[in-house]
Amino acid sequence: MAQILDPLPPEQSENILCCYVNATSKIQVVRISNIANWYFERVVFPGQRLIFEAPPKAQMEIHTGMMASAILSDNIRCDRLAIEQPSAKEFDTDSVGIDPISNKSMVSSINTKVGDTTKPLTISRLVSVD
To answer: Which residue from 23, 14, 89, 21 is spatially nearest to 53, judged by alpha carbons?
Structure first.
């Protein structure tokens, strides 16, 4: 997964996919500042999910927004935010739409009956306005 801005330095070869969810009702600013030659800072709105790549040793600082200020409310190691990346098997298109238990198609066929599908439109008229 590529970073939109500020890609990781090339010496950071082993990255993990991470996910952070802002479960508060306040805006948060998340920042990783312990990786040399890399700037990572994002605004995360309440309920928003942030998915990003980072080295396992990265530390995420979470700053919770208050009126005209922000308080450092947490520090989380990115290896604790790691999520499992999907395997190639999960993207196997040969088995899409097949129920693995009964081997029947999970999608019903589309009704292709040919017939008159156009009907006149009934329009109501406004008789008077009081």
So the answer is: 14
